[in-house]
Design goal:
Distance between the termini of chain A: 30 Å
Helix content of chain A: over 70%
Number of strands of chain B: 0
Shape of chain A: globular
Strand content of chain B: under 5%
Number of helices of chain B: 13
Helix content of chain B: 55-70%
Structural class of chain B: mainly alpha
Shape of chain B: rod-shaped
Order of helices and strands of chain A: HHHHHHHHHHH
Oligomer: heterodimer
Structural class of chain A: mainly alpha
Largest sheet of chain A: none
Chain lengths: 190, 234
């Protein structure tokens, strides 16, 4: 991770409000996407709860910017699990692909089009169609940028289990790429 | 479909490379590469909903408003006690009157210290007070220079129409002068345009001077009177 990010985290730990704001802006988008995979439309609310705790506990955090991302993801995940318990809901992962699919206009090279026009929300929605352990592994590693060990700490799993889950998730996503629904889904959600 | 590259079986090594954002792997698997790149794209860097709430929580957690004022008043009291009674304190120590001094500190001494935050005449004590860093305590980490006034100024700027007599801005009003807070805050902003966003931490005395290097804003106020005030007798 860039030295600048480490310094930002350190400055925020010393109470520098501008640094904290910069950390928030850097981290919140990907944290929100991860939470979307877990709690769907409640991600904003859960993220707010997570940031309250992050703001409060930041002085106790020890580590660099990489460590901070894992630490923040752990807090976000705990808040998400609390939220699911509170609302007695199941995680939203494993959403059926059809729910994000829309009609496909005829005569278009959908795959080419999809590659050019995949939006962030659509990509997250597609990942959210995976079983939750796979979706989480893919999100933590590819979106939050954690390595398998760090992602394993967030999930309470061994690094090998995280690698396997992410690998299976990518294989499933790759299969969905060659069906007409997936590109349509991507374009539709976006 | 036309996306022939993605028919290539994905092995574990390729998956690892894809997950870590390897450009060659993402080019070799354009579909997955595109999905992962889109999902992981950085944010716009602009203000986000919830940001102000998070920052407010951060400010509340990191700048308890009572702390700087209590410290400054404690230091004021300490400074006066030390300057006025330093001779007496030395005599008490030399004379082996430590027990008496301790007893005194347990009895009447706490009174001025604890009452000071509520009843000390601010005008007199603060005008007579030397600059914080020059107090006999000689602990730089106790001075709250730019950082806290910057925060106070942010609050000041964020609440137009407030009164300089608002206790929240008591420190600011004393520092800047009751009628010059706007100018003071304006001056405060000038020399530090956006240093924090570039990742350069502010030079805070507490960072270098703190004995533990913990990065905390400074020791608790209760650290101050202990020890240094005890020797002085009555």
């Amino acid at each position: 991770m860039a030295v600048d990010d480490d310094e930002l985290v350190q400055a925020a730990q010393r109470g520098d409000e501008a640094a904290f704001r910069a950390v928030y802006r850097a981290q919140q988008p990907t944290l929100l996407r991860y939470l979307t995979v877990l709690v769907g439309g409640d991600a904003e609310d859960v993220a707010s709860e997570a940031w309250l705790q992050i703001a409060r506990d930041l002085p106790k955090f020890r580590g660099d910017a990489d460590g901070f991302r894992g630490w923040a993801a752990t807090i976000a995940r705990h808040r998400a699990m609390d939220h699911l318990r509170r609302t007695k809901r199941r995680p939203v992962a494993a959403l059926p692909v059809e729910l994000v699919a829309i009609d496909l206009p005829d005569g278009q090279d959908t795959a080419e089009l999809a590659l050019e026009t995949i939006g962030t929300d659509a990509a997250v929605a597609l990942i959210a169609t995976l079983p939750r352990d796979q979706a989480e592994a893919v999100m933590l590693r590819a979106v939050l940028g954690l390595d398998a060990e760090s992602a394993g700490k967030v999930l309470g799993k061994r690094a090998g289990a995280v690698r396997t889950a992410a690998y299976r998730g990518l294989r499933t996503l790759a299969q969905r790429a060659v069906t007409p629904e997936a590109p349509a889904a991507l374009r539709g959600v976006r | 479909m036309s996306n022939h590259e993605d028919h290539r079986p994905l092995d574990r090594d390729a998956a690892e490379l894809l997950l870590s954002g390897d450009p060659a792997a993402r080019a070799a698997h354009p579909w997955l590469g595109a999905v992962l790149a889109a999902a992981g794209s950085p944010g716009a860097g602009a203000a986000l909903p919830g940001e102000d709430a998070a920052v407010a929580a951060f400010a509340a957690a990191h700048t308890p408003s009572v702390r700087p004022r209590r410290i400054s008043l404690l230091k004021t009291t300490l400074a006066k006690l030390l300057t006025v009674k330093v001779a007496g304190a030395c005599l008490a120590l030399v004379g082996g009157a430590g027990g008496v001094a301790l007893a005194a500190s347990n009895g009447a001494l706490p009174a001025p210290l604890h009452k000071a935050p509520h009843h000390a005449p601010a005008s007199a004590s603060h005008s007579a007070r030397p600059h914080p860093s020059g107090t006999p305590s000689a602990r730089p980490s106790h001075s709250f220079p730019a950082a806290d006034f910057a925060r106070l100024c942010q609050k000041w700027d964020a609440r137009p129409g407030h009164s300089p007599d608002d206790p929240d801005f008591g420190d600011l009003a004393r520092k800047a002068g009751r009628d010059h807070i706007d100018r003071f805050c304006g001056d405060l902003r000038k020399p530090r345009p956006s240093a924090s966003f570039s990742g350069v931490p502010r030079p805070q005395p507490s960072g270098s001077a703190s004995p533990h290097g913990s990065g905390q804003p400074g020791p608790r106020p209760s650290n101050l009177p202990s020890g240094s005030t005890r020797p002085q007798g009555r």
